[in-house]
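User: Fold both of these, please.

Assistant: Here is the first one.
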Amino acid sequence: MPPSPTASSRALLARLDESAFTARHLKIYVTVLLGHFLCGFVINLTGVVLPGVIKTFHLTSESAGVFSSVLFAGMLVGAAVAGTVSDRFGRKVPLAVTIMVYAVFSLAAVFAPSFGALVTFRALQGIGLGAEIAVALPYIAEFVPSRHRGPLVTAATAAWLIGLPTAAAVGTAVVPVWGWRAMFAIATVPVLVGAVMLATLPESVRYLLRRGRVAAGTAIVDTLCRGTGTSAPAEHHEAPETRGSVRTLVGRRYLRYTVALWFMEVCAGAFLYGLSSWLPSVLEKQGVGLLKSFGYTAIITTAGVVGAILAGQLINRIGRRVVLGAGFVLSGLLCLVWGTTTAAGAVILLGSLATFFGSGLAGSTLFAYASELYPTASRATGLGWAAAWQKVGGLVMPALVGFVLAMHTTQFVFFLLFGVISVLAGLAALVATFETRGRTVEQITQEITGTPVAATRAMARS
């Protein structure tokens, strides 16, 4: 007698979760990683091109803040919509399309004839960028073996963060010679990655199983995994949803965790995007030359990459809650000290430590947490809304900083803003984070929703 669809699905999930990390896993992961890195690069062009845009279009601080914020308005829309679209139509095609969208509008920005046109193209570009984030991380979380999920999702966030110092480094070489428009020309390269994704990436097995396409899922698992698990995971009873549901995110079981996650994302977005958008300009006002300000920014933001890589190991050992809480709080306290000095060595050291703990340890852990917290039927929706709230922080903070700087306040106020929001995020993490360490994504859902879990389940080291 052939196995039931439910038994077959459970067996496939066991093979996915307990498989070795194969060459096929690596090929898929590197492809997604490249797209995610380029997403980070394009987003973080703002701080690199902003000084040139200000001079070209004779902008005030308030107008410059609008240019910084409009990208995040588009990203907010893209992140919120893409998660639901991906939960309904799959991961592969939406992921490739999002990358092509932001590449096409990069080309449009090269030829922007006015500040209004540039703002419009940057906002439309933001829709693709925000959508990419909402789809890429759930895709990774759903196909990698469970014990590798935390390290590989945080490593993807590290690749995204590498986009910031890379943008600063490339800007140092390109902008003085060819101007700020050349940076947008470089940002058209991702269209090639999108085409490769359409041609080579498989669909998410968990998405296929949720839609009842067991045969298609089996074919992918057969090419992806070398081994099988020793036992099937407990049956996962998920509501029969056909698309991502925001109601799941704010339902009774998830509400506490969702509110805390969204609040942390707002704070994390304000820290990351506010700092990357304005730090070169603030350093320049402190007397640091333009090229040196790009160099300092590259060094400082590179520390965030190191933190993100280390986070993948820490969250498997001490858990998500501790890394989030400690990372945010330490970052906030360092920002307060950072704002009291103008010495070059101290600026670089304190800035590097603040981004190491804030954008690196805490920021990357936050996305790993968001990509695993919700059930498969709403996973991309959950990550999309989390990313959207991060963009709220990115939307508000650059404009707020522009307003504050226009009031001719001391530079300390700039760093005070970042310190306060980081400490508040850390407190939220310590109070209302569900610990996901040592669980498969199905087991996380079972424990939050109260579904009985079989005593014989195999615990994955995730």
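And the second sequence with its predicted structure:
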Amino acid sequence: MRNPSLHRFATRPGFYFTEDGGADVIVRSETADQVWLSVIESLDDPSAFYQDSIRLFDTPGVSFVDQIHEFPVCTRLIEDQYVRETLFRMEGPNYGLWYVHIPKAWSGMHYGFRVDGAWDPRHGVRFNPYKLLLDPYAKGIDGKMELSPAAFSYECEIKDDRVNGSAFGAMSTVDSLGHMPISVAIDDRDERKHDKDPEHPHIPWSKTVIYELHVKGFTAQAPWLPEELRGTYAGLAHPTTLAYLQGLGVTSIELLPIQAKQNEVFLQERGRVNYWGYNTLGFFAPEPSYATKAAQEKGAEAVREEVLHMVRALHEAGFEVLMDVVYNHSCEGGIEGPTVCWRGLDAISYYRRQKNNIGRLEDTTGCGNTFDFTNTHVVTFVIDSLRYWAKRIGIDGFRFDLGVSLARLNGEFTQHHPFLYALRSDLLLGNLKLIMEPWDLGNLGWRTGQFSLPFAEWNDRFRDTTRQFWLTDVAGGGRVGRIGMQEMATRLCGSADLFATDPGRGAASSINFVSCHDGFTLTDLTRYTNKHNEANGENNNDGSNVNNSTNFGVEGRTDDMTIIARRERAAMNMLGTLLLSLGTPMMLAGDEFGNSQAGNNNAYCQDGPISYLKWDWLYTSEKNWHMHRLETVSKLISLRKSLDLYHQEGFFTRLTQLGLLKPSSRIQWFLPDGTTPMERDWFDLGQRSFAMQLLDASETDVIIVINGVPEDRQFRLPADSSWTPAWCSAESTGHLPGHGLRVQDVRLSEHQSTWASNVPEDSNIHELVERMQSDPSTKQMQDLTDAFDADMKAVALAEAAQRAAENANATLAGNESNDESGERSDSTVRGEAVEAGGDAGMTPVEATSASAAGASDGTSAEADDTTAGDLGVHSASEEPLEEVPEEIPDEIPDDNVWTFPALSITLMKQLLN
């Protein structure tokens, strides 16, 4: 039975097919007394090991575990499972590894391990040969865990769907075979099978725009897909899906975990599932439930092929594929959790343990256990897994969940951790995109910016700053808030305070985001002040209570067009900040068209409509607000990708470390009057209007103008160039920056037809379009969109009438007011604030109340009574607006003066002569 060539694999566990038709199988367990390889066959098929094995029979008083110790190879029949189990006694341990060569092996073979050893829970040792264990290196997995006593290594019972028993009690003697997932062997020896794969896009960081999506949720309700492809790997690879992603313009698709997952016990007890997938069952195997039913029925190899096809299709369409991976913990949970794999193989080696109580696990993940990355073999295991996904599946990069837990030595984080060095020094992995989630639940767990080269990191400071500046500060009046120019400018230019940690480590290391899978969607940030997680079944106690969101006066959806407009402007401000900032932007799928989760900010267990993207809007015959936002975001992404100015790697150099500082030659800052900010301006929380110029000697300069106050603001732009607006967040509500002393009104066009109106009758999608356009819910949504468009037109007309009246009055009155005081009159200030759509310091509730008199019904009142604005209205009977100091006199024409809409962000491009 011993194979003389076996030990060529001595340093790596795994299942290795051999040229003789068999396989070498190797598994690690440093403290076990004996390990068996278990091969499972159907009773309908003849055994492949008939000549080699001894059959076991039930013997009163003798367990099958006692019997299997007697023979090198033995077989038993499990009639209630209708399977045959053949057990091969493995040799070892040899440097912690156990070996066996089996004479026959085939792709699709079901197998696992049984391990015997000490049972001493108080010292962390829990060997139980009655439990069939997964191979940690299995490339395929079939089956699911049942909530059954068979899943647990200790004696317990399931009563009222709850597990009852002590993890420190007696060892369970319930056989887990048939009640737990099982490993599947996949023959992957063909070294040339990927030769015809498309080239990987290898998007440079300077052009990267990350798009985070859930494989199932992205297409689960996609009407362009046949039912059998919805929510699958194949659905994501469908040509129409790829065309949508190309139209959006993103470059890198980041997939929420697609490694095989298992539902936590507490979710199973409540009849729920882990939808997000951050509870890994197999680190080499893809999640089967995301494959088509046809692939699932064919088995693990077909599931894997569907994943390969998805990756190839994404590459062929020009996208990088990034994977969210969870190596900080396993699905086994705390010591009370099930025994699936690592706990049964070698719990002492795999998991971190409390220093003063070795029977208990250290938990810096909030999931019950933490892998021990001080163990070289754990590091090797993870590196092997990553290399497999990169080399065999074709993944272009990884985002590491709770990355701080992967870099703790003796409990404390260090950027010099051996695992981080193993990643950066690996010839394959070191050249991929490696992104860290820079926090965990352990001591000093917040470590944003501290991972060093070549790692990028999620930037939570960018998220919080952007939300506070455009949402909570605006809800507080928009005059003075928690975020001033200093903080906002720091985030706009790449968060050097966090990421200037190594020479050459630039802004691209900052993964900027406003929303992600965990938390509110972008739209819900503007609809909900509070979370609404009641559907999760945890009494709304789960999920973060600190969201920096606001509802603009009404919690949830509303038909009030003024509130809708305020929300849309806020959403575009946040998207604009995200996509115009230095750094690497990451968007949440669905934010580009206004997807909502009904206020649920922790939808991890919602495998249903709450989490699935809603696509009905896509097939209306006339453009709605979803489509307008989608087009605006696509335009903004295209503008960003066209500007090489966004490649910033020059935070500091070795000279900087020696104290030889020099100001940046790439960025200049201006106040509205065109002057350079003084030190006091940077720390003035009331200074919410400023401009950031990005300079480049070889291409067009751009200026990003932030107007964070609730009235129009005039800016004097640099006089050495002419400028034109390339994009403005106020476009969403009918305004653009105006060259001169007024904002420019964008005439809202009549209904524009969409591509869905021109689908050829012989197209496969024609019937779908007709069905969608006739659907009552689609008609209702179109009616709401029509009302929104009508209201915005009324707003524009009212503002035009107001402006004309003011101009006429100004012509008659001359400049008497300015001649006497040198300042603008109250009426002038009031008119400009209203035209900007500013709420003039009103709270959202006050703005909502005021809007009832005019804007919401699409009518305009007299100019001296009430005038509707796109972000709110102001009545002449209210208190006078706070005057804004005169920075640019009205009577002096100046080609360099532009007026920017209230509460907006604008990209101005240099006009070349």
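Confidence is low (pLDDT under 50) at residues 810-886.
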